[in-house]
Write a structure and sequence with these properties.
With about 210 residues, this protein is an alpha/beta fold. It has two domains: about 140 residues, no CATH class; about 60 residues, no CATH class. The protein contains seven helices and ten strands. The longest helix is centred in the middle third of the chain and has 14 residues. It starts with 8 loop residues before the first strand and ends in a 9-residue tail after the last helix. Bound molecules: iron/sulfur cluster. Iron/sulfur cluster binds next to strand 8 and helix 7.
Length: about 210
């Protein structure tokens, strides 16, 4: 599959969706961003052609076709894992569409992990062992209180790490390179598929 044809790109070896960062008015997808998160985004504010194409593809095509295309690209990568919004976010106009795409992929057995500031999206996507969407919030206190039966993430910019909460408890401190699993007190390379395999980090099931 040629690069210009793909909508999935690898992050830490896993196929992921990247959307253009920035304000909607500038062609970006980060409707709920803060100045601080934008200034510290791992994208460095750079928008790539493939992200613009991916967003256009999601806007222009029906749900069934998008799901089929994602399944085809996952099979090209020989993967059953999909990461959402490595950067960029779900714009409000795509919320319902993406909820349904996520639901259908879940029915097909795809393991999914995502990060969003779109609270409606986060509320509508159920939390399951193999399906985690973390709401990004701006204080550790908010992360803690909002994480009842769902994952919430506080990006601690001063330490360049995401603090991941589930069920009122911090479960991981993840830099995207290394991840400290607080349930087991182990430091591992950041690998969402491995977190899923051990129900750690964003995939913690509590306890
Ligand atoms: S805690 Fe684990 S699942 Fe969550 S982002 Fe880090 S590596 Fe991925």
């Amino acid at each position: 599959m040629e690069i210009e044809d793909r909508i999935l790109f690898l992050e830490n070896g896993s196929p992921c969706i990247f959307f253009p960062v920035g304000k909607l008015a500038d062609g970006g997808t980060c409707n709920f961003m803060t100045d601080e998160c934008y200034e510290n985004c791992p994208s460095c504010g750079v928008v790539h052609e493939h992200e613009i194409k991916a967003l256009k593809y999601f806007k222009d095509n029906p749900i069934g076709e998008i799901v089929e295309r994602i399944m085809k690209e996952l099979s090209y990568f020989e993967s059953t894992f999909l990461g959402w919004f490595s950067w960029g976010d779900c714009p409000p106009s795509l919320t319902e569409k993406i909820v349904e795409i996520v639901r259908r992929l879940n029915e097909s057995g795809i393991i999914q992990n995502g990060f969003t500031r779109n609270k409606t999206l986060w509320e509508k996507i159920p939390c399951k062992n193999n399906l985690r969407f973390s709401l990004s919030v701006d204080t550790e206190k908010d992360a803690n209180v909002s994480s009842n039966s769902k994952t919430v993430c506080f990006p601690d910019i001063s330490r360049a790490e995401a603090r991941v909460f589930f069920d009122g408890k911090m479960r991981a401190r993840c830099s995207g390179y290394f991840c400290i699993h607080l349930d087991t007190n182990r430091t591992v390379e950041a690998d969402c598929e491995q977190c899923y395999a051990g129900f750690n980090g964003c995939f913690s099931n509590g306890g």
